[in-house]
Amino acid sequence: MRKSATAALTLLVVGLALIACSGPIAESPSEEADPPYGLITPAEAAALLGERNGEPDFALLDIRTDAEIEAGHISGAEGLNFYDPSFRERLAELDRSKTYLIYCRTGNRTGQTVPLMKDLGFERVYDLGGGITEWARLRYPVCVGPMDGTHACTGGSLEPASSL
What we know:
Elements: H1 2-21, E1 37-40, H2 42-52, E2 58-62, H3 66-71, E3 78-79, H4 87-92, E4 99-103, H5 108-120, E5 124-128, H6 131-137, E6 142-144, E7 152-154
Parallel strand pairs: 1-5, 2-3, 2-4, 4-5
Antiparallel strand pairs: 6-7
């Protein structure tokens, strides 16, 4: 009897210690704020663009080369070439308090850029999972031509086109 009472008390103390060390518990997932950094799906990116595009505290950033951008980009994006020798310096000049949605071709360059932006003190950065390749595969709107010139865009909605 004494051994089982000691074992029960030990388990209780260990359990309470684990709970106390685990930190605060969120009351429900819906009450948690969006994560400040993260990979998001094209559908989530489309929703974010639908809600925030054009707002002064939001920026869509395409980190591909000019040639890649002219071949197809998301309307409203700003270009910042990942391969430019001054990429880090130009990135550091951006407003750190804005919310950024960044993309590249498939996600490799953004996968390297998100941690860099975090290290530079950017507050909220989202990475378009699969890049523009996945975005276009799901038939979200893509514009062809230079960002700052005349370009034509396919699609007209941030809703994915239906499959044939």
